[in-house]
Amino acid sequence: MPIIRPYRPGDRPDVADICVRTGDAGGDASAAYADPGLLPATYALPYVDHEPELAFVLDDGGRAVGYVLGTADTAAFVAWFRSGWLPSVEGRYPRPPHPPRTPDDELAAVLHRPERMLVPEVADHPAHLHIDLLPGYQGAGYGRALMGEFLRALRAAGVARVHLSMARANTGARAFYDRLGFRETAVPDLPGVAFLVRDTSPP
Questions:
Q1: Average pLDDT, the chain
Q2: In whole angstroms, what separates CA 18 from the centre of its chain?
Q3: Nearest Cα to 131, choosing from 165, 179, 108, 181?
Q4: I need a surface site. Which of 26, 149, 182, 199 has the fewest CB within 10 A?
């Protein structure tokens, strides 16, 4: 049976792989980018480097097949992303041309704009998260259990509220978040993206 446990440094390649294989509105994004490493460099690996204590994985026989990760303080994370993370990856992923010409350019533009995470409408929910499971492990209660571990860790750190953002096209994920008690808050400047919030009580 798969188990949920804290993230370990050896899980890093699995976390990157899961991010890619779920990165297209829940589907496989392997063919979407010339360099698929750009996706986890933007949305997964910074979190496990900065706050590994807030990362948990679903382990099936020694390999991670799902994860939840995030930050307790989005503003502090953005500042670290700008000063600490970008210098470590911009050699491989330089700032793209403007306007972007390829899907990789578009994603690199996101990577180089961490301030995008500072959304005034959710500033009173300072933590945020990402959760992904490989398709064969979805719908079996593992996502709820992962979320429970993450929320427990936030409560232990004294964090009362959390938010997440998601593509509206990912209707399966939206149904999952609705079942866990997340509610949408209006962010009018970002069409196609839903921002969901909740407190850190158990799901």
A1: 96
A2: 11
A3: 165
A4: 199
Q: Which tokens sit at 47?
A: 């979190």
Dihedral sign for Cα 111, 151, 159, 153, please: negative
SS3 103: helix
Can you tell me the mean pLDDT for 36-44?
Answer: 97
Burial of 19 (0-12, 13-18, 19+ CB in 10 A): buried
Q: Both tokens of residue 18? A: 């899961």
| Residue reference for tokens 């499971």 | 133
- Burial group, residue 98, by CB count within 10 angstroms (0-12, 13-18, 19+): exposed
Hey, which CATH number is domain 3-159, 3.90.1150.10, 3.40.630.30, 3.40.50.720, 2.30.40.10? 3.40.630.30
pLDDT at 96: 95
Domain spans of the chain, in order of start: 3-159
